[in-house]
Design brief:
The chain is α+β, with helices and mostly antiparallel strands. The protein contains eleven helices and 22 strands. The relative contact order is 0.19.
Length: 497
């Protein structure tokens, strides 16, 4: 039974609910892409679908707008698909379970995908209508924006006629985004030798952190569970020959990690009768208690629900990184920078350069142990971005850990002259009696890549109010969605020239 069927605007929420039933996490976009193609086919609309599954749908101008400049509407079809630790849903196969709480839409135990499902819903509602006046609409829905903007990087836009674009990938109503940072992903692969050992198995869990979008909320300096783990492992290995067995932290490179779990083997001595005669685990437990209280105090304001849990299992025999390589891994993890690196000297409160230690994974194969690490780097200054990447490369080089660079995308430079921005500001003032806030942001948008393909492109990014995107607490405001829809309709109606 439809959960959103009585919400206004019905046409928008109907499509939002429909696409929410289709799994569309980054890298898993075939079904949503094919859905968009089928939508266009059923309505006789011109469309293009490329090998990456990007989709472009074109609808000709309505009567009276035949000579108006086309308008590009743009968003992305993928979402950051995350779930709560105790949720058993398979987000690669199952759709979302939507719910309504007052003015907010949420998804049960998972992220909502309002970023950027609402862009698809707005676009489909416009394309589906026979009564909404508009110029030629060129709707561009890209893939895998959340994991490096690969779709926007590779898409062919040669069939487009428009040079003005409304990007629908912002999360605050009344804020017009006109510039953003560029970014890049840095992947490390640490390798070391494993050995079999008998001892106490320490099971460690770091959690209770708020997380959040690494572009929009990095300035809040919330705890990063992967960084905290590196700090703890360094303290343990400084005094004890511990062996790292497993670790798993973070869900996406552009989401601040909220939880990291690990298994660490602590070698113990046993007598001829099998009884344990060395109790390193007790000393490590005392160390963990002290570290927990220290970190808890540090995060008391920024992350008050932070917790550490640990337990032991005695007389375990298994393979793990040897002590020397565990120590090397600990030093490497501890050395990695994280968070805000520089604030903008020109725009108060704007983060200029940052990085997020987003993903940490381990595996063991045939006597070797590996750690996979992914870091998202952002900066509105290209030279600062490059310098930070060189710093990471240097840290890896010193530690003997190779790195690869991928998913680089340019920033979106502010345009001094923007007729589209002027029109949108003027319309907003007429409708609401107040000026919108015009900003540049630290989070990444695809507009910079589009401008590299269409140099004369004039674009502005807008969207309804969303909170806690990329997390299981993500919400979308119903009333804000309606107001932005009404504004979008009036904007298109005003574009006869």
């Amino acid at each position: 039974m439809a959960v959103l069927e009585n919400l206004e605007p019905r046409e928008v929420f109907s499509f939002f609910e429909e696409i929410s039933s289709i799994p569309r996490g980054s890298g898993n976009v075939s079904r949503i892409s094919n859905y968009l193609v089928k939508f266009a086919e059923q309505r006789g609309l011109e469309y293009y679908q490329d090998e990456l599954k990007n989709v472009i749908i074109i609808k000709e101008a309505t009567q009276g707008y035949e000579y108006a400049q086309p308008v590009i509407l743009q968003g992305h079809m993928d979402m950051v698909a995350v779930k709560k630790p105790d949720c058993n849903m398979d987000l690669k196969m199952e759709g979302l379970r939507l719910g309504v709480d007052g003015d907010l839409i949420y998804a049960e135990n998972t992220s909502l995908g309002g970023d950027d499902g609402i862009a698809i819903a707005y676009a489909l509602a416009l394309l589906d209508s026979d009564s909404i006046p508009h110029p030629r609409l060129e709707v561009v829905i890209t893939v895998d924006e959340e994991v490096g903007m690969e779709g926007a990087r590779e898409i062919d836009l040669s069939m487009l006629h428009g040079t003005r674009m409304v990007n629908l990938d912002s999360e605050e109503e009344g804020i017009f985004t006109v510039g953003c940072a560029g970014g890049v992903r840095v992947d490390f692969q640490f390798s070391g030798k494993t050995e079999e050992v008998k001892g106490s198995l320490l099971k460690l869990k770091i959690g209770g952190l708020q997380g959040g979008h690494s572009g929009a909320e990095i300035h809040k300096e919330r705890g990063n569970s992967n960084q905290i783990f590196g700090r703890i492992l360094e303290e343990i290995t400084k005094g004890y020959p511990a062996r790292l067995m497993e670790v798993k932290g973070g869900l996406a490179d552009n989401a601040i990690p909220r939880e990291t779990t690990a298994k660490i083997l602590v070698a113990e001595e046993y007598g001829s009768d099998g009884r344990q005669i060395s109790y390193r685990k007790d000393a490590i437990a005392e160390l963990l208690k002290s570290l927990y209280q220290t970190i808890k105090d540090e995060l008391a304001v920024r992350d008050p629900d932070f917790f550490m849990e640990w337990s032991y299992e005695d007389q375990v025999t298994d393979t793990a990184l040897n002590p020397a390589d565990t120590r090397r891994a600990a030093l490497f993890l501890c050395a990695l920078p994280n968070g805000v690196q520089a604030m903008s000297p020109d725009i108060p409160g704007l983060v200029e350069t940052s990085l997020n230690f987003g993903i940490l994974r381990s595996k063991r194969v045939l006597g070797e142990g590996y750690l996979g690490i992914t870091i998202s780097v952002r900066s509105s200054v290209e030279s600062e971005k490059a310098a930070l990447v060189r710093r990471l490369h240097a840290i890896g080089k010193l530690a003997g850990v190779p790195c690869k660079i991928r998913g680089e995308y340019p920033g979106w430079k502010y345009r001094a002259k923007s007729p589209l921005r002027d029109r949108m500001i003027r319309l907003y003032e007429e409708m609401y009696g107040t000026q919108p806030e015009v900003v540049a942001i630290h989070a990444g948008l695809e507009c910079g890549l589009f401008m590299s393909k269409i140099p004369e492109l004039d674009c502005v990014s807008i969207g309804p109010n969303m909170q806690n995107i990329h997390t299981t607490e993500e919400t979308l405001s119903i009333s804000s969605t309606e107001r932005v829809w009404v504004y979008l309709l009036d904007l298109l109606a005003s574009m006869k020239d």
